[in-house]
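Next up, sample data.

:::
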Amino acid sequence: MMLNVRKVFSYLRFSDPRQASGSSADRQLAYAAKWATKNGMELDATLTLKDEGLSAYHERHVKQGALGVFLRAIDEGRINNGSVLIVEGLDRLSRAEPLLAQAQLAQIINGGVTVVTASDGREYNRASLKAQPMDLVYSLLVMIRAHEESDTKSKRVKASIRRQCEGWKAGTYRGLIRNGKDPQWLRLSPEGWELIPERVAAVKRALELYSQGLGAGRAANVMHDEGFKLTDWGISGLQIYRMIKQPALRGVKRLTLDGEDYELEEYYPRILSDTEWAELQHLASQRFRRRGAGYRGARPTWF
């Protein structure tokens, strides 16, 4: 839908969703409403621009979030020239490498949108930057600082996770390692990981159907009719296909840090023994090589 009048938009981003419960969001929205009233403009309340739990360092808020939607709307001409985007600070827009961050700011400004930072009241648009070129230098310095802060934090987190992985392999650490996604058939209790019975039943049914020669898509259709779910959203062939390859079935957590692979044995409760896992991978490799030839592999021993 074309936006035919100049409007004020407020963009909020929190790398940790828990930050959204604080007062900063309320302060920024109040600032945006006051700024719009003072400048005789309308604060748009229909376009929700909020990214919670999406990193600006890895640009997930652009690839997956509301800011990416807004940027596409600018490129497609759906945001009218003279509109305003209010953010708490430039680090809310990006914490990527400075050249990438500045290119993103330039994309917004060149689209005819003014960026206003609520933290200091600065305005960034083509006219203001032409009149005050040092504001462009200031914005770059802010972006350099934001990237360095995130880069340092990222390196510290990775170093901590690497120490935990090494400790797990050495048997000196048995705590949580928060990296990547954990299997949907597990939940974390105060005592540690525990299996979710109905999800485990779905996993075993999927493996049974797969061992009988059904493809992942057909198996998902059968299980849907039978009322099985692998996740809260149901079941799909892609879920089954990915699950078959997960070493978590035999209790292993697999993760990669800066190109280095770790396989942490006995991290999760097992569903399959090592022998059963090996049989499953052999079956999957045979099915892959003979796909389209009507192959039905030998029935694994776990059923």
Observations:
- The first strand starts at residue 7 and ends at 10.
- The radius of gyration is 25 Å.
- The CA atoms of residues 36 and 45 lie 12 Å apart.
